[in-house]
UniProtKB/TrEMBL annotation:
Positions of the UniProt region annotated as Disordered: 472-510
Cofactor(s) needed by this chain: heme
Bilayer topology term: Single-pass membrane protein
Cross-referenced SUPFAM superfamilies: Cytochrome P450 (SSF48264)
Record's subcellular location: Membrane
GO molecular function: heme binding; iron ion binding; monooxygenase activity; oxidoreductase activity, acting on paired donors, with incorporation or reduction of molecular oxygen
Protein name: Cytochrome P450
One Pfam entry name: p450
Cellular component terms per the entry's GO annotation: membrane
InterPro entries in UniProt: Cyt_P450, Cyt_P450_E_grp-I, Cyt_P450_sf, Cytochrome_P450_Monooxygen
Keyword hit for Heme: yes
Length: 510
């Protein structure tokens, strides 16, 4: 008996570390997919680590200062430093290739059509990678961003209707209110600090505060201050969890009580208690509260039979929804708003165009602006500048999926033929490479040229924006939130400190 058990365990282990990786690699290579040579147990982990080390040391040794002694703004430095191995293997093996991180086999794809297909794949056989979910569990739980199958569908059904365009339109007023407050502080500072009408602001912290402000008001409404505390704690958790590597697929040592992890666990408990406290208050006296997002989602969830029958499931849903919306909405907006302002500052001719169209529609005094959806949609230059900034500096760098069964992708190989992705394969795409591909975007792919979106602003940016639109129509909220944060009066901003894009966290808000 004992011998049978031992044999079974040994066969299981061998299957995991040897036969299964070899089988997957062989299925892919028979379909013409190449990739770097793998080694037993480690796959390509050593090459990945080596390339990350080289990039790290070259980044720390290169002192990139411009002639005036200011830190130089490099458009491309960050691209080189994020996931260098994906870029190097792309160069060597083409748009589709395979690699391995030991027991996990990966397929990299970089064709727009294929990515579109991945995004539009309806079957639940394709989902978010389970190991990423584990690594991000403290912050995302099993919320809509990480969930798969039935659990994802249930959450999507309850959340998505609150992000339809009509609902987002209703939030423009509060976005404008929060943004106007921030702009007034800038004006005040400009009046106090400027020399010759020009002052230097580090706007990224202000944009972070603005994003928290908007999310807290939209989501928590009358529980705004509590909402703000929750958002700040979530921020602290995100910072302790951010790790720019695909290697968190390696045997995960998340149980070790390191200092950082103890902090995360403590914050996790605090956030959960705070959210449940707000939810409980609202369940006891619903009439007292305004119809903010939390209230509407709670009311909708209370009518769901599955959640009604299980108090724990209901609580989990509410906690995960708060954390997921915060995670998805916060940094995407901060990063895109920061980059849009930065790029406009670097291209004064575009800043002027944007300013003129806003003044034309709204007048040149903030109190008279009073934005609404129709006015926002008239800002074509601003819309194009935002799309161009999302293209160049996509806030979510990686698109990732896991095949839970063998799946067929149309036109996947180099000849446009169908190919089969075996069960267990993790599929990746690196959005910045896709967005700067000269074959798709033309020879000026690395340049800021919002003009390229003139004829098809309504169409989404390949990958990124399309995904955002498809999933929760959230790009409507995103773009309107970004549009409200562009100030027609601000002087050209000369520098923006510590740009903090989400690139490199391996997260996409997906
Ligand atoms: C510039 C702003 C934004 C960008 C570029 C962006 C991008 C994305 C992308 C690429 C995905 C899907 C990834 C995938 O399919 O794998 C996604 C999903 C998601 N986003 Fe955003 N997003 C933005 C803003 C927001 C905002 C403001 C919210 C909510 C307040 C939000 C909520 C979500 C949610 C809930 C999902 C998961 C949907 C699902 O899995 O069904 N996003 N986002």
């Amino acid at each position: 008996m004992m011998i049978i058990v031992i044999c079974r365990v040994m066969i299981g282990v061998l299957d995991m570390i040897w036969w299964n990786p070899k089988r997957i690699q062989s299925v892919l290579s028979k379909q013409g997919i190449r990739g770097p040579k793998t080694s037993f147990l480690y796959g390509n982990v050593k090459q990945i680590q080596q390339m990350e080390m080289i990039i790290k040391s070259s980044a720390s040794s290169s002192s990139s200062s411009s002639s005036d002694g200011q830190p130089a703004v490099s458009h491309h430095q960050w691209l080189r430093s994020s996931f260098p191995y994906l870029q190097e293997w792309s160069r060597l093996y083409g748009r589709t290739y395979m690699f391995s991180t030991g027991t996990k086999q990966h397929l990299y794809v970089n064709q727009p059509e294929l990515i579109k297909e991945l995004k539009q794949h309806k079957s639940l056989d394709l989902g978010k990678p389970s190991y990423l979910s584990k690594a991000r569990r403290p912050i995302l739980g099993n919320g809509v961003i990480k969930a798969n199958g039935h659990h994802w569908a249930l959450q999507k059904k309850l959340i998505a209707p609150h992000f339809f365009p009509l609902q987002v339109k209703g939030m423009v007023g509060l976005m404008e209110e929060c943004t106007t407050t921030m702009i007034r502080t800038w004006e005040q500072r400009l009046a106090e600090e400027s020399q010759g009408g020009v002052a230097e602001f580090m706007v990224d912290q202000d944009l972070k505060d603005l994003s928290i402000d908007i999310i807290s008001r939209a989501f928590f409404g009358s529980s705004y201050y509590l909402g703000k505390t929750i958002c700040k704690k979530l921020r602290a958790m995100e910072e302790t969890l951010a790790k720019p590597s695909l290697l968190f697929g390696l045997p995960y040592l998340g149980f070790l009580p390191t200092q950082g992890r103890r902090k995360t666990w403590r914050l996790e408990k605090e956030v959960e208690a705070l959210i449940l406290n707000v939810v409980k208050g609202r369940q006891e006296d619903a009439g007292k509260y305004s119809k903010d997002l939390l209230q509407m989602i709670l009311e909708r969830a209370s009518t769901d039979i599955e959640l009604q029958q299980d108090k724990h499931k209901m609580e989990r849903f509410m906690v995960d929804t708060c954390t997921n919306i915060h995670f998805a909405g916060y940094e995407t907006i901060v990063s895109s708003a920061s980059w849009t302002l930065m790029l406009l500052a670097l291209h004064p001719e575009w800043q002027q165009r944007v300013r003129s169209e806003i003044i034309e529609t709204c007048g040149d005094h903030i109190p008279s602006m009073s934005l609404d959806w129709d006015k926002l949609s008239q800002f074509k230059n601003l819309g194009n500048a935002i799309l161009e900034s999302l293209r160049l500096y996509a806030p979510s760098a990686v698109i990732a999926r896991e095949a839970f069964a063998d799946i067929k992708l149309d036109g996947g190989d180099s000849n446009g033929n169908n190919f089969v992705v075996p069960k267990g394969v993790h599929i990746w795409s690196f959005v910045p490479l896709l967005h700067r591909d000269t074959e798709n975007w033309g020879p000026d792919a690395n340049e800021f040229n919002p003009e390229r979106f003139r004829d098809y602003q309504a169409k989404a940016v390949v990958g990124e924006h399309e995904a955002a639109r498809r999933h929760v129509a959230q790009s409507d909220e995103a773009v309107s939130e970004l549009r409200t944060s562009d100030d027609p009066q601000a002087e050209p901003l000369r520098s923006i400190g510590s740009m903090n894009s989400r690139v490199g966290t391996g997260e996409t808000g997906f």
